[in-house]
Specification:
Blueprint: H1 27-109, E1 115-121, E2 125-132, H2 136-144, E3 148-153, E4 158-160, E5 163-172
Antiparallel strand pairs: 1-2, 2-5, 3-5, 4-5
Length: 181
């Protein structure tokens, strides 16, 4: 009689000590379980609703700032183009100074009585054609200069009176843009 579920439904105890097997004892537990189940379903549904609302707010913000972001990208591209153009202009401006510095260096290196018939300056080389009393020494003088390297004759030296005719090609050492070399 102490375990009504495991025993036979016969109860041999006196009426005051008999157990009662009323199903109403389980009613509060069932009601609370149902309330808990409803609360869990509502919480899950509410999370989905909140996620959809949050997503719609985010999409609205994205839609609001998309034109601004496109404009910023356009401005960034324009700024990059202007910077590239400015760098190119500075590079062209520095080329004139570099060429004039190279011409001054050649003028100092080829002191009279040496003289040039022609001079061709490129970004990477200089081609000198002229006359000097001792043309072989010019290679050493040019290679000592910080602006020229690897000087060499492109044609054999020829005699013209007291002077020697020469054609020299030398590699230019051009400094960084705006550096002045």
């Amino acid at each position: 009689a102490a375990c009504p579920w495991l025993a036979l439904p016969v109860n041999l105890l006196p009426a005051g000590q008999r157990s009662k097997s009323s199903r109403a004892v389980y009613a509060p537990t069932v009601v609370l379980a149902v309330v808990l189940l409803v609360a869990l379903v509502a919480l899950t549904a509410l999370a989905g609703v909140e996620n959809r609302r949050y997503r719609s707010v985010l999409e609205a913000e994205i839609a609001r700032y998309t034109p601004v972001a496109a404009e910023v990208r356009t401005l960034d591209n324009k700024i990059k183009a202007v910077r590239d153009r400015r760098r190119l202009l500075q590079e062209f401006r520095s080329r004139t100074k570099q060429d004039l510095d190279a011409l001054q260096e050649l003028t100092q290196a080829l002191a009279p009585p040496a003289w040039l018939k022609s001079l061709q300056l490129t970004r990477s080389a200089a081609l000198l054609n002229g006359e000097a009393p001792q043309a072989a020494k010019l290679l050493e003088i040019l290679d000592k200069s910080p602006m020229f390297r690897n000087s060499g004759f492109t044609a054999p030296i020829s005699r013209s009176g007291e002077a020697e005719r020469f054609t020299i090609r030398t590699r230019r050492e051009v400094g960084p843009a705006g550096g002045g070399q």
